[in-house]
Every structure is written in structure tokens, then in C-alpha cells.
Description:
Number of strands: 2
Low-confidence stretches: none
Largest sheet: 2 strands, antiparallel
Strand order of the largest sheet: 1-2
Order of helices and strands: HEHHEHHHH
Radius of gyration: 16 Å
Amino acid sequence: xxxxxxxxxxxxxxxxxxxxxxxxxxxxxxxxxxxxxxxxxxxxxxxxxxxxxxxxxxxxxxxxxxxxxxxxxxxxxxxxxxxxxxxxxxxxxxxxxxxxxxxxxxxxxxxxxxxxxxxxxxxxxxxxxxxxxxxxxxxxxxxxxxxxxxxx
Length: 152
């Protein structure tokens, strides 16, 4: 999948940047906290925050590994596909499926008619739980990746 995404230019190689990855992970965690705070009063913004948390966490992993998704139409789908193929040993299949549902709910939240009538605080809390698991899993993976090898 990675070689295909590079060949089609859905992904491009960049210089690995662990500092940028750390910054994105911190932003992702902040978005999850914000989503939980907003869940009752602004479900559409809260759902977007959950989606952004997941997207930024995956982008953090990409950045740490010298990859970037192309911008424009389909970029968020490309990022989710990267996670499905490159992080399948880090994120559960159920959470990856939920991440794709959250991406679709974010589209509804931002572009759908009467989205606030279709999404509830319960939906946001469920999405925030998924986002938190994904952000935490990627953060742990990046922390392990950043550790220097142990020398005897």
C-alpha cells in the first residue's frame, strides 16, 4: 500500500520530523479534551474536533516517518487509509472502522443539513473515546520510536 500511495503521489516523502510529530500529538490530545467539553453544547464542532484529533495523530506518525499526504480532495481519506495499512498493529480494526465513521460524521457535521439534529452528545462522547484510544496508541508508538537504543 505504501509503495502504491507513493507511486500515485497520494503520499510524498519528506524529512522525518519527530518535533512536528510531538506537536501534532499534543494538539490531537487537546482536541479530544475540547470535544468532551463541547459535547453537550456544540455537537457539530465537537465531532469535527474528534475527527481532527484522529487525523492529526495519524499525520504525526506520518511526519515522524518522513511522509505527508497530498492536500486537496480525498486527503483525509488518504490519511485514514495510511492508518489502516501502516498502523494495523497499533490501532484496532474496530477503532479504524470507527475513525472512518467519524470522518463521515464530520462531513455531516460541517456540510449536512440539520447536522445538530442528527448527531448527539452521546455520539460525540463515543467518537471522543475512539479518538482518545487512537491518539494514545500513536503517542505510545512514537515515544517508543523516539527512544534511543539501549546500550550495554
